[in-house]
Amino acid sequence: MAASRRNRQLRTKQVWFIESRGSIPRLSRVTRTNEKDLTAVPANSFNNFTEYGIGIGLRVPHYRHILAQKPVVDWFEIISENFMVDGGRPLEVLDSILEQYRVVQHGVAMYFGSADRLSREHLKKLKRLVKRTKTPWLSDHLCWGSVDGRYTHDLLPMPYTFGAAKATADNIREARDFLEVPICVENVSSYAEFHASEMTEWEFLSEVVERADCGILLDVNNIYVSSQNHSFDPYDYLNNVPHDRVGQIHIAGHSKFEKYILDTHDHPVLDPVWKMYAHAVKLVGRTATLLEWDDSIPSFEEVHHEALKANQFIEKLENAAA
Ligand SMILES: [Fe+2]
After folding, report:
1. In terms of pTM, does the model score above 0.90?
2. What share of the chain is helix, strand, coil (3-state, %, to 5)?
Protein backbone atom coordinates (compact mmCIF):
# COMPACT_ATOMS: atom_id res chain seq x y z
CA MET A 1 0.00 0.00 0.00
CA ALA A 2 1.34 3.44 -0.89
CA ALA A 3 2.48 5.44 2.12
CA SER A 4 -0.02 8.23 1.49
CA ARG A 5 -2.92 5.75 1.42
CA ARG A 6 -1.62 3.81 4.41
CA ASN A 7 -1.35 7.01 6.40
CA ARG A 8 -4.89 8.13 5.81
CA GLN A 9 -7.22 5.32 6.81
CA LEU A 10 -10.64 5.30 8.36
CA ARG A 11 -10.19 3.98 11.88
CA THR A 12 -13.14 2.74 13.89
CA LYS A 13 -12.71 1.63 17.47
CA GLN A 14 -14.18 1.93 20.94
CA VAL A 15 -12.20 4.19 23.25
CA TRP A 16 -12.40 5.32 26.87
CA PHE A 17 -12.10 8.98 27.79
CA ILE A 18 -12.68 11.32 30.74
CA GLU A 19 -16.00 13.08 30.33
CA SER A 20 -15.88 16.42 32.12
CA ARG A 21 -19.44 17.59 31.47
CA GLY A 22 -21.44 17.91 34.67
CA SER A 23 -20.00 18.13 38.16
CA ILE A 24 -18.41 14.66 38.30
CA PRO A 25 -15.77 13.69 35.71
CA ARG A 26 -16.55 10.16 34.52
CA LEU A 27 -15.10 7.58 32.25
CA SER A 28 -17.17 7.19 29.09
CA ARG A 29 -16.79 4.88 26.14
CA VAL A 30 -17.51 6.01 22.58
CA THR A 31 -17.20 4.51 19.16
CA ARG A 32 -14.87 6.81 17.33
CA THR A 33 -14.64 6.77 13.55
CA ASN A 34 -12.38 9.33 12.03
CA GLU A 35 -9.83 9.92 9.37
CA LYS A 36 -6.48 10.15 11.07
CA ASP A 37 -3.00 10.96 9.99
CA LEU A 38 -1.31 7.75 11.09
CA THR A 39 2.14 9.26 10.79
CA ALA A 40 1.39 11.10 14.04
CA VAL A 41 1.48 9.38 17.41
CA PRO A 42 -1.83 10.59 18.90
CA ALA A 43 -2.36 11.33 22.57
CA ASN A 44 -3.92 8.47 24.51
CA SER A 45 -7.67 7.99 24.52
CA PHE A 46 -8.08 7.81 28.33
CA ASN A 47 -7.23 11.51 28.64
CA ASN A 48 -9.58 12.36 25.78
CA PHE A 49 -6.59 12.72 23.43
CA THR A 50 -5.24 15.63 25.50
CA GLU A 51 -1.48 16.09 25.24
CA TYR A 52 -0.19 16.47 28.83
CA GLY A 53 3.49 16.08 28.01
CA ILE A 54 6.36 15.24 30.33
CA GLY A 55 6.27 16.00 34.05
CA ILE A 56 8.53 15.57 37.03
CA GLY A 57 7.87 15.00 40.71
CA LEU A 58 7.74 18.14 42.88
CA ARG A 59 10.46 17.62 45.49
CA VAL A 60 11.63 19.79 48.41
CA PRO A 61 15.26 20.29 47.18
CA HIS A 62 13.86 21.94 44.02
CA TYR A 63 11.33 24.29 45.65
CA ARG A 64 13.64 27.31 45.76
CA HIS A 65 14.76 26.89 42.14
CA ILE A 66 11.25 26.41 40.77
CA LEU A 67 9.74 29.33 42.67
CA ALA A 68 12.60 31.70 41.74
CA GLN A 69 13.33 30.60 38.16
CA LYS A 70 9.86 29.48 37.04
CA PRO A 71 11.25 26.93 34.56
CA VAL A 72 9.06 25.69 31.71
CA VAL A 73 7.67 22.32 32.83
CA ASP A 74 4.60 20.60 31.39
CA TRP A 75 3.30 19.55 34.83
CA PHE A 76 4.31 18.48 38.31
CA GLU A 77 3.24 15.38 40.19
CA ILE A 78 2.84 15.82 43.93
CA ILE A 79 2.68 13.18 46.62
CA SER A 80 -0.79 13.88 47.99
CA GLU A 81 0.05 12.89 51.56
CA ASN A 82 2.74 15.61 51.77
CA PHE A 83 0.08 18.28 51.30
CA MET A 84 -2.87 16.87 53.29
CA VAL A 85 -2.28 19.39 56.04
CA ASP A 86 -4.22 22.36 57.37
CA GLY A 87 -1.71 25.06 56.45
CA GLY A 88 1.92 26.14 56.70
CA ARG A 89 4.81 26.06 54.27
CA PRO A 90 3.73 22.99 52.23
CA LEU A 91 0.44 24.60 51.19
CA GLU A 92 2.08 28.00 50.60
CA VAL A 93 4.50 26.36 48.18
CA LEU A 94 1.73 24.34 46.56
CA ASP A 95 -0.42 27.42 45.98
CA SER A 96 2.52 29.22 44.36
CA ILE A 97 3.13 26.21 42.11
CA LEU A 98 -0.56 26.03 41.20
CA GLU A 99 -0.47 29.64 40.00
CA GLN A 100 2.03 28.62 37.31
CA TYR A 101 1.69 24.90 36.63
CA ARG A 102 -0.65 21.96 36.23
CA VAL A 103 -0.42 19.63 39.21
CA VAL A 104 -1.38 15.95 39.23
CA GLN A 105 -1.87 14.12 42.51
CA HIS A 106 -0.21 10.78 43.26
CA GLY A 107 -0.91 9.01 46.54
CA VAL A 108 0.94 6.39 48.56
CA ALA A 109 -1.51 5.58 51.35
CA MET A 110 -4.90 4.61 49.91
CA TYR A 111 -4.12 0.86 50.00
CA PHE A 112 -6.88 -0.09 47.58
CA GLY A 113 -6.00 -3.77 48.04
CA SER A 114 -6.34 -3.91 51.82
CA ALA A 115 -9.24 -5.94 53.15
CA ASP A 116 -10.07 -2.97 55.41
CA ARG A 117 -12.50 -0.37 54.12
CA LEU A 118 -10.90 2.88 52.98
CA SER A 119 -10.25 5.43 55.73
CA ARG A 120 -12.99 8.07 55.64
CA GLU A 121 -10.69 10.53 57.39
CA HIS A 122 -8.06 10.01 54.68
CA LEU A 123 -10.63 10.42 51.92
CA LYS A 124 -11.98 13.66 53.40
CA LYS A 125 -8.50 15.19 53.60
CA LEU A 126 -7.73 13.97 50.10
CA LYS A 127 -10.90 15.55 48.73
CA ARG A 128 -9.94 18.92 50.19
CA LEU A 129 -6.64 18.65 48.32
CA VAL A 130 -8.33 17.53 45.09
CA LYS A 131 -10.47 20.68 45.19
CA ARG A 132 -7.37 22.79 45.77
CA THR A 133 -5.26 21.31 42.96
CA LYS A 134 -8.05 20.53 40.46
CA THR A 135 -6.01 17.47 39.54
CA PRO A 136 -7.30 16.04 36.22
CA TRP A 137 -6.96 12.51 37.65
CA LEU A 138 -5.60 10.99 40.84
CA SER A 139 -3.39 7.95 41.18
CA ASP A 140 -2.45 5.48 43.90
CA HIS A 141 -1.05 1.98 44.00
CA LEU A 142 -2.39 -1.49 43.35
CA CYS A 143 -1.24 -2.86 46.68
CA TRP A 144 -2.28 -3.45 50.25
CA GLY A 145 -0.67 -2.03 53.39
CA SER A 146 -2.99 -2.06 56.38
CA VAL A 147 -4.69 -4.54 58.69
CA ASP A 148 -7.35 -3.58 61.23
CA GLY A 149 -6.42 0.10 61.03
CA ARG A 150 -2.67 -0.53 61.51
CA TYR A 151 -0.61 0.81 58.63
CA THR A 152 2.66 -0.63 57.30
CA HIS A 153 3.52 2.50 55.26
CA ASP A 154 4.72 0.11 52.59
CA LEU A 155 3.34 -0.90 49.19
CA LEU A 156 2.82 -4.64 49.65
CA PRO A 157 2.16 -6.95 46.68
CA MET A 158 -1.28 -8.43 46.11
CA PRO A 159 -2.31 -12.07 45.80
CA TYR A 160 -3.60 -12.21 42.22
CA THR A 161 -6.98 -13.79 42.95
CA PHE A 162 -10.47 -13.00 41.64
CA GLY A 163 -11.63 -12.32 45.19
CA ALA A 164 -8.87 -9.77 45.76
CA ALA A 165 -9.59 -8.16 42.38
CA LYS A 166 -13.26 -7.69 43.29
CA ALA A 167 -12.52 -6.25 46.75
CA THR A 168 -9.87 -3.92 45.32
CA ALA A 169 -12.18 -2.73 42.54
CA ASP A 170 -14.92 -2.03 45.09
CA ASN A 171 -12.51 0.19 47.05
CA ILE A 172 -11.44 2.06 43.91
CA ARG A 173 -15.08 2.69 42.95
CA GLU A 174 -15.83 3.95 46.46
CA ALA A 175 -12.85 6.34 46.34
CA ARG A 176 -13.76 7.59 42.86
CA ASP A 177 -17.38 8.21 43.84
CA PHE A 178 -16.36 10.06 47.01
CA LEU A 179 -13.53 12.10 45.50
CA GLU A 180 -15.37 12.83 42.24
CA VAL A 181 -12.21 12.53 40.16
CA PRO A 182 -11.00 9.82 37.72
CA ILE A 183 -8.59 7.36 39.33
CA CYS A 184 -5.59 5.56 37.84
CA VAL A 185 -4.10 2.60 39.72
CA GLU A 186 -0.37 1.99 39.52
CA ASN A 187 1.32 -1.39 39.26
CA VAL A 188 3.98 -1.71 41.99
CA SER A 189 7.40 -3.37 41.89
CA SER A 190 7.48 -6.58 43.95
CA TYR A 191 9.91 -8.95 45.56
CA ALA A 192 7.58 -11.77 46.67
CA GLU A 193 4.68 -13.69 45.15
CA PHE A 194 1.74 -15.62 46.57
CA HIS A 195 1.15 -19.34 45.93
CA ALA A 196 -2.56 -18.48 46.09
CA SER A 197 -2.41 -16.37 42.90
CA GLU A 198 -4.87 -17.47 40.20
CA MET A 199 -3.52 -15.32 37.34
CA THR A 200 -0.55 -13.25 36.19
CA GLU A 201 0.03 -9.75 37.50
CA TRP A 202 -1.07 -8.15 34.23
CA GLU A 203 -4.25 -10.25 34.18
CA PHE A 204 -4.92 -9.12 37.75
CA LEU A 205 -4.36 -5.46 36.87
CA SER A 206 -6.70 -5.83 33.89
CA GLU A 207 -9.34 -7.57 36.02
CA VAL A 208 -9.21 -4.81 38.64
CA VAL A 209 -9.44 -1.86 36.24
CA GLU A 210 -12.24 -3.42 34.19
CA ARG A 211 -14.24 -4.15 37.35
CA ALA A 212 -13.54 -0.70 38.79
CA ASP A 213 -13.98 1.06 35.44
CA CYS A 214 -10.86 3.10 36.17
CA GLY A 215 -7.56 4.02 34.57
CA ILE A 216 -4.02 2.66 34.79
CA LEU A 217 -0.85 4.44 35.84
CA LEU A 218 1.56 2.18 33.98
CA ASP A 219 4.94 2.19 35.73
CA VAL A 220 7.24 0.65 33.12
CA ASN A 221 10.19 0.61 35.52
CA ASN A 222 8.13 -1.35 38.06
CA ILE A 223 7.17 -3.84 35.35
CA TYR A 224 10.84 -4.27 34.43
CA VAL A 225 11.93 -4.69 38.08
CA SER A 226 9.22 -7.28 38.77
CA SER A 227 9.90 -9.10 35.49
CA GLN A 228 13.54 -9.61 36.48
CA ASN A 229 12.67 -10.62 40.04
CA HIS A 230 9.92 -13.06 39.00
CA SER A 231 11.19 -14.20 35.59
CA PHE A 232 8.46 -13.09 33.21
CA ASP A 233 8.64 -11.26 29.89
CA PRO A 234 7.88 -7.55 30.54
CA TYR A 235 6.58 -7.21 26.98
CA ASP A 236 3.88 -9.81 27.72
CA TYR A 237 2.78 -7.40 30.46
CA LEU A 238 2.81 -4.33 28.20
CA ASN A 239 1.02 -6.13 25.37
CA ASN A 240 -1.78 -7.54 27.50
CA VAL A 241 -3.19 -4.70 29.59
CA PRO A 242 -6.12 -2.60 28.33
CA HIS A 243 -4.24 0.16 26.51
CA ASP A 244 -7.24 2.47 26.27
CA ARG A 245 -7.29 2.71 30.08
CA VAL A 246 -3.70 3.95 30.47
CA GLY A 247 -3.83 7.57 31.63
CA GLN A 248 -0.26 8.06 32.83
CA ILE A 249 3.17 6.43 32.62
CA HIS A 250 5.92 6.40 35.25
CA ILE A 251 9.58 6.00 34.41
CA ALA A 252 12.38 5.74 36.99
CA GLY A 253 15.83 4.36 37.72
CA HIS A 254 16.51 1.13 39.59
CA SER A 255 19.49 -0.68 41.13
CA LYS A 256 20.78 -4.13 40.24
CA PHE A 257 22.02 -6.50 42.91
CA GLU A 258 23.35 -10.02 42.57
CA LYS A 259 20.05 -11.84 42.94
CA TYR A 260 17.40 -9.17 42.51
CA ILE A 261 16.63 -5.68 41.24
CA LEU A 262 15.47 -2.92 43.58
CA ASP A 263 13.19 -0.04 42.64
CA THR A 264 15.38 2.71 44.12
CA HIS A 265 14.41 5.84 42.14
CA ASP A 266 17.94 7.17 42.63
CA HIS A 267 19.38 6.81 39.11
CA PRO A 268 18.70 7.95 35.56
CA VAL A 269 16.36 5.64 33.64
CA LEU A 270 18.17 2.54 32.33
CA ASP A 271 18.12 1.46 28.68
CA PRO A 272 15.79 -1.58 29.05
CA VAL A 273 13.21 0.69 30.68
CA TRP A 274 13.49 3.31 27.93
CA LYS A 275 12.93 0.55 25.35
CA MET A 276 9.82 -0.55 27.24
CA TYR A 277 8.68 3.07 27.41
CA ALA A 278 8.94 3.40 23.62
CA HIS A 279 6.94 0.20 23.20
CA ALA A 280 4.31 1.40 25.69
CA VAL A 281 3.83 4.71 23.85
CA LYS A 282 3.52 2.80 20.59
CA LEU A 283 0.69 0.75 22.13
CA VAL A 284 -1.03 3.49 24.11
CA GLY A 285 -0.26 6.74 22.28
CA ARG A 286 1.37 9.86 23.71
CA THR A 287 0.68 9.67 27.42
CA ALA A 288 1.33 11.94 30.40
CA THR A 289 4.78 10.76 31.45
CA LEU A 290 6.41 11.33 34.81
CA LEU A 291 9.99 10.71 35.90
CA GLU A 292 10.27 9.56 39.53
CA TRP A 293 13.55 10.51 41.22
CA ASP A 294 13.17 10.27 44.99
CA ASP A 295 16.61 9.55 46.45
CA SER A 296 20.06 11.09 45.83
CA ILE A 297 18.11 13.82 44.03
CA PRO A 298 20.33 15.86 41.66
CA SER A 299 19.72 19.43 40.48
CA PHE A 300 16.36 20.40 39.01
CA GLU A 301 17.97 20.77 35.57
CA GLU A 302 19.41 17.25 35.68
CA VAL A 303 16.11 15.68 36.68
CA HIS A 304 14.18 17.65 34.06
CA HIS A 305 16.75 16.86 31.37
CA GLU A 306 16.42 13.14 32.14
CA ALA A 307 12.62 13.34 31.99
CA LEU A 308 12.66 15.15 28.64
CA LYS A 309 14.61 12.27 27.07
CA ALA A 310 11.17 10.67 26.77
CA ASN A 311 10.51 13.05 23.85
CA GLN A 312 13.34 11.42 21.88
CA PHE A 313 11.53 8.09 21.94
CA ILE A 314 8.26 9.68 20.85
CA GLU A 315 10.06 11.43 17.96
CA LYS A 316 11.58 8.11 16.88
CA LEU A 317 8.09 6.61 16.76
CA GLU A 318 6.90 9.57 14.71
CA ASN A 319 9.79 9.14 12.27
CA ALA A 320 9.26 5.39 12.03
CA ALA A 321 5.58 5.94 11.22
CA ALA A 322 6.33 8.58 8.58
FE1 LIG B 1 5.76 4.71 40.03
Report:
1. no
2. 40, 25, 35
